[in-house]
Specification:
34% helix
């Protein structure tokens, strides 16, 4: 276990478990935390992204960004494929040559492969969906899109453009940026860093 994670004693863990009787993460925080965990599986060399699709307060599909199943990963070669000069083609936007499937796309693809209904569902993403992903989400019947981090186009105005793009479809789906409270992050980190299912109370 990493040295910088907070290790707590058994009594402290029982106190932590008991405290959840009075405090629990909100549903939005809960699902966003799961999306953040999904991102730990990312194999994109540019940035890790995770997504979960939720229907009736239950996760029905998850995804993270990376190469298609069975293909080699950019993290294996320690390079972003489309950023390599030898992999760029004149007249084609370099990003279009990316090998990665976005997290949202992977979540939708997972649902499709397993025959899981996602019409009317919500999706929680660690990064705001790109325009292509957003259109696919709408076409799949996703009604609510939540994300943690805006794409950040290096202060070139792209973020405002993205918000304006989302608003074109506000009659089809709502889009909202979320954050996780410090209290929830503190609680989640302790649960992850330590044995999770210690007894809440000493006698039962």
């Amino acid at each position: 276990m990493p040295d910088d994670l907070p290790i707590i004693q058994e009594q402290d863990m029982m106190d932590l478990g008991a405290s959840l009787s009075d405090y629990r993460p909100s549903w939005d925080e809960y699902f966003l935390l799961l999306a953040k965990l999904a991102a730990t599986r990312s194999t994109c060399f540019s940035r890790p992204v995770g997504a979960v699709i939720v229907l009736d307060k239950r996760v029905v599909a998850t995804g993270y960004n990376g190469a298609v199943p069975g293909a080699w990963h950019c993290t294996d070669k320690k390079q972003c494929y489309w950023r390599q000069p030898e992999n760029q083609v004149p007249g084609i936007e370099p990003r279009e040559l990316s090998r990665a499937v976005h997290a949202e796309m992977n979540a939708v693809a997972h649902a499709a492969r397993k025959g899981i209904r996602i019409e009317g569902a919500s999706i929680y993403c660690t990064l705001s969906p790109c325009m292509n992903c957003f259109k696919v989400l709408l076409s799949a019947g996703i009604k609510k899109v939540f994300f943690e981090h805006i794409y950040d186009f290096n202060n070139q105005g792209g973020d405002q453009f993205l918000w304006d793009f989302y608003r074109q479809y506000e009659d089809l789906a709502t889009v909202k940026q979320l954050s996780i409270s410090p209290k929830t992050l503190e609680t989640a980190l302790k649960f992850i860093a330590n044995t999770t299912s210690q007894r809440r109370h000493e006698d039962y």
